[in-house]
Amino acid sequence: MNSRIGRKLLLAIIACIVVTVAVVNTFTLFRSVGYMREIMTEQAQSNMNVLLNGEQTKESEFADTVEILSLSLSQTAGVGLEDLWEKERRSESDFCAIYDANGNQFWKSENFTLADFTPGDVGDGISGIVDDSAAGLTIQVVRSFVKDGKYNGCIILGMLLSENSWLDELKAETGSEFTIFSGKTRYATTVESDGKRAVGTDMAENVSAKVIGQGEAYSGMADILGQEHYVDYQPMKDINGKIVGAFFSGLSAAEFNRMRTSMIITSILVGVGIAVVAMIVVGVIAVKIFVKPIQEAEKIANDMSQGNLAHGSSAAALGNDELGDFVRKLQATEVTLSSYINDIKNVLSQMAAGDFTAKPGVEYIGDFAEIKGSFQSISTSLKSMIGEISMTANDVMMESSQIAEGSQTLAEGTTRQAASIEELSASINEITEKVEQTAKNAAEAGKISSESAERIEFQNGEVQNMLSAMDEIKEKSDKIQNIIKAIDDIAFQTNILSLNAAIEAARAGAAGKGFAVVADEVRTLASRSAESAQQTGDLINDTIAAVDKGTEIAQKTASTMKEVIDFSNRTNEYISGISAASENQAQFIQQVKIGIDQISNVVQQNSATAEESAASCADLNSEVGRLKEQIAKMKV
User: What letter does residue 89 receive in the DSSP assignment?
Assistant: First the structure.
């Protein structure tokens, strides 16, 4: 049996059978033991009745023997009593005595030992148990006999209850132990102790108190000389109603234990036999009803768990019960799932081939109905998605075309911009050279301006001697006129250079704003220098013209020379400023040149990037075209 649940089920059934059999056997044993105890107790009571009936039988037998003896005496007057007694006596313990009308004993048996019997008017007779002081417990039957209508004497017949033979006969008949108690002492018994009759031993105190003391019967379990017995005690009363002892009937518990052991073994064997037969029957039924359907269900479930739904119909015989219905429904479920999966595979295969119009070919029921809705949702979503992808591909293609055109235009513009930057860089180099030259000229002008100031200062010292040195002053004035002309030329040239610098600063844009301010300042200084030179020339002309006026205007000339000195100092300051500004311009132009070089590098990189972007846009446009071709293959 390969089915685990079948084995468990069979083991469970077997366990239930075993437990049931064990419980039933145990219950039966307990009940049987209880019944047996009751039966044993009742048997002891029944055997007690046998004992009491035996005692009554003895009395009846003795009464019959008395009648026979009485009849014989009335006929033979005592002749042949010995022979008759030997014929009628039943045991060695039987005794007999015959008394005449006067109470004289004229015959007795050899074992007659009664001491308490007194003949007299016995009336209808006496029958019962008598505890004689000499003979002990006896059964006595006394009858009177009449001859010729008159009391002619009495006959006493009986038996010593110390006789065990009749108890042995009862034991052989019933299997029970019997005892005659005199008081609480065993007087005659079949019970043995150490291989001997237990005569002279006493009954238990609790039993003696109840039976002898209270005159009540006692039934149940009792310990008899160390052995358990089912017993029945009955008080023994004499002919006067006095309790003189007790009757005992008992069955040994050892016998009961043997019977119980035999019953247990028999019960176990029967239970094991029943269990084995039940297990075989249940095993066959379980295999047919439970195990085979469970194995079939397990096989189907195992195939389903491994994704194998092509199990097919089963050859196993399925019962018309819940388990058979379950397996058949499981088979139907397998078939249904197989049809669902085949349909899903078909639809997905068509979708994989690009056909999104495929629809389920089977009817989905229950929770599987959602699959059909899911297919419809997938189809709708894919239609919408593919439409959007197609539109997006068109848009991307258009945008990529525009980007490609823009990138090409940008590349061309960047190339032109790079050429312009190179031209601008060359112009800046020229401006740099000119600005450097201007700085050198400004330095030279400053030097000349310093010399002019010294000379004017010298002239101011010699103005007092102007009259005598007019010719020298005229010569010097001519030189000054030449210098002023040179200054005027420098101012003019500086003005031109500042104009050019302003133009180049305007071309440089924001980077040339500072340079434009400096150019404006240079132009202003150049204008002022020209004006100063013109004024100085006018003053010198006035001085030359005033030479003829003589000494009287010398003081005016001295005052004018002071102004000339002031103007010369200012000119010197302006020329120094022009020189410093020229140096700053040279530095700024150098920075502009570095910036232009950087711009040139960036423009070149932008040009390369624009060309790469144009190429990437061309590739993107090609990929979008292929994407549109793939989308066109899809059927929605």
Answer: -
